[in-house]
Predict the 3D structure of the following.
Amino acid sequence: MWTRFYDMHSGGDTKIEGKQVIFIEASEAEAIDIFENTFGHHPDDVACPCCGENYYYRESDSLEGASRFDRRKMTCTYEPWPTYKRIDNPPASMGELEANDEVLIIRAEDKAEA
Ligand SMILES: [Zn+2]
């Protein structure tokens, strides 16, 4: 299982050094514990009451599935104004996802070594 944590920019900033999205290889309940132990704060913490919780999170069967939205977004482009027609690029590869500076991936094996 994989859990995706999406930074909601509560209070205006990403909470973990510019990382927009964090994937943890664990069930949702386990991933929340790993998140808290690793980063020292809870994903349900609220940086700013008008913005709400710091993270939106959800469990998926695979990293491929968990990252589908993010990989689509990475390659999404539009023709310039005035058409704004969407150019349907294939989603970014898993390698491109891993290489993205705004993405952090924590695998179960990384945790075991730590
Ligand atoms: Zn706010």
